Amino acid sequence: MPTVTALQGFADITSSLDLYDVAQRLSEGLFAGIEFVEEDRGTWDGAHALRLARNFLDLEVVLMGGTKNWYTLQVVSAVHPESGTEFDAEDRVFGHLEDLLREQIGRLKDIQWKPPVY
Question: What residue numbers bound the domain in which 61 lies?
């Protein structure tokens, strides 16, 4: 039976709140009060970004500020398969967190989940 080796999820959200207030709501509502801090690895696609001060359930979480109160929440496994090691595609399973994020974000006040725009 294959085991999940990587989890990932992305959620586009809108809010009349600024980036820091959205981060505070997400921290309290989804991530057990772990605060968001400035992303020290630079900007993400030119957007200002905050990340959780520490991993949550071994997940790295980044909140990127967009334009017109549009934000992206990225949640990705902190542990990645080692680079250079071969893996059998049948043994590697990705778990997707979009449905869980959509449901949980829907419970938060002043933050709305938006369907992805392609």
Answer: 3-80+90-114
**Per the domain annotation, does 60 fall within a domain?**
yes
Contact by Cβ (8 Å): 66, 73: no
Residues 6+ apart with CB under 8 A from 26: 36, 63, 73, 105, 108, 111
42 found inside a domain: yes
Q: How many structural domains are present in the chain?
A: 1
Please give the model's pTM, rounded to 2 decimal places: 0.76
pLDDT 10s digit of each residue in the chain, 118 long?
556 567 788 889 999 999 999 999 999 999 999 999 987 665 556 678 999 999 888 888 999 986 778 899 988 886 655 544 444 444 455 567 788 888 888 888 888 878 766 5
Phi-psi region of 9 (alpha: psi -120 to 50; beta: other; left: phi over 0): beta
